[in-house]
Amino acid sequence: MHRHRNTDASDYDLAIIGGGLVGGSLACALRGTGLRVCSIEAVAADAASQPSYDERVIALAWGSRRILEGIGLWGHIAPGAEAIHQIHVSERGGFGFARLDRAEQGVDALGYVAPARLLGAAIRGALAGVGQGPEYGHIDQLCPARLLGLRIQPGGVDLEVALGGGSRTLRTRLLVAADGGDSFVRRRLGLPVRERPYGHDAVITTVTPDRPRPNTAYERFTDTGPLAMLPMTEGRWSVVWTAREADTQALLRLSDAELLARLQDRFGYRLGGLSRLGRRVAYPLRQVMAEKTVGERLVLIGNAAHTLHPVAGQGFNLGLRDVAALAEVLTDAARAGADPGGAQVLDAYRRLRGRDQAEAALVTDTLARLFVNPWAPLRLARDFGLVGLDLVPGARRVLARRFMGLGTGGGRTGGGRQPRLSRGLALGGRRD
């Protein structure tokens, strides 16, 4: 797909590198804002190798639903999303457990589970209408297209893009890197990161239990790391199984019956017997945090800024909160006639997002490390901690708000108000 107008080299207010779930959501959010946007994605959206639209399911926090409503995507996602009404947290071999419930939080659901491909289809569908009328704004989609080089100048960023067998040079006033954990932009500019490998992989598959508990998600901590069981449509559960790197290939080579037996032993029988194992894939786990997410005419968002351990399902939800905050400051800049790549706009974004990003990284890293420590006194403390959590409503509320994407740093402005998208409100212009 090569959709673009005849432009000169200085036609864009911002260029988004990466058209996956986070970059695509930002492009959708900016429809109708009057900003001139270019989206550059290397892999065609319908390609089997498209990493954002693969076999994984996404645990969407309640706060993410509100953002997707504001962007105009939720109506296309909701029919294929399974609501999470309860979350059950436990540790294998321990006596403690805790339960979070939507009723206690006064919401329809704590979150939702949706296939990544469904989110991708909603984004593609929303952007397919761009250019059909002035209410959509101007968003050029260059795909497949590959960023070859970039040069940051005082007034903008010059980009060289491989496109359709040739190359094209364009200029943008702001460069947004949404190109994943191995961000080309971040590496090309030599931006430092703090990287922490976990020595584990996430093995992803699906199962069908014979005693399902609809709308209940499970986070079970084991000696190799967390094991998440997330409810899906059609009575299936998505499995996110943390395994030691040294064990991953052996797990992937097991027969379906052998792997189901291993999984049953790890998870237990809260859902009865497990059967109908789906396709299995594995992803390495690491934490990668950019030391700075804002630079001269540059913003890093999503995994390009912060790649987290999947425990508590924070990754994509954190990226969506990046989208909500960045879209708001850019829209406000456009209305004020300000430079979208100017220092004042970028400082406003940094102030909105720094605390939430740091808190999410700390929470996921602490959980991932705390619950694999086999020291007996610590195991006992964890059990009593889960019992106490289950008994104390205030503690459950704090944890639930983190799961729901409503933590104390969850994208609030300096005055305590959440960005408009985080409240389910459109930024302006068309709302589907």
What does this structure look like?
This protein has twelve helices and 21 strands. It has 432 residues and is an alpha+beta fold. The protein has a domain at 2-82 and 115-195 and 287-372 and 404-423: FAD/NAD(P)-binding domain (3-Layer(bba) Sandwich). Strands 1, 2, 3, 9, 10, 11, 12, 19 and 20 form a nine-stranded mixed sheet that branches. Strands 6, 7, 13, 14, 15, 16, 17, 18 and 21 form a nine-stranded mixed sheet that branches. It has a three-stranded antiparallel sheet with strand order 4-8-5. Strand 19 and strand 20 form a beta hairpin. Helix 1 runs parallel beside helix 9.
| Overall body shape | globular
CATH top level class name of the domain at 2-82 and 115-195 and 287-372 and 404-423? Alpha Beta
Structural class: alpha+beta
CATH H level, superfamily name of the domain at 2-82 and 115-195 and 287-372 and 404-423: FAD/NAD(P)-binding domain
User: Helical segment tally?
Assistant: 12
Number of strands: 21
Q: What is the topological layout?
A:
Blueprint: E1 2-3, E2 12-17, H1 21-29, E3 36-40, E4 57-61, H2 62-71, H3 74-77, E5 82-84, E6 86-91, E7 97-101, H4 102-105, E8 111-115, H5 116-128, E9 138-142, E10 145-153, E11 156-163, E12 166-177, H6 184-188, E13 193-209, E14 216-222, E15 225-231, E16 237-244, H7 245-253, H8 256-267, E17 274-275, E18 281-290, E19 294-295, E20 298-300, E21 306-307, H9 315-336, H10 343-370, H11 376-391, H12 393-403
Parallel strand pairs: 2-3, 2-12, 3-9, 6-14, 12-20
Antiparallel strand pairs: 1-9, 4-8, 5-8, 6-7, 10-11, 11-12, 13-16, 13-17, 13-18, 14-15, 15-16, 18-21, 19-20
Helix pairs in contact: 1-5, 1-9, 2-9, 9-10
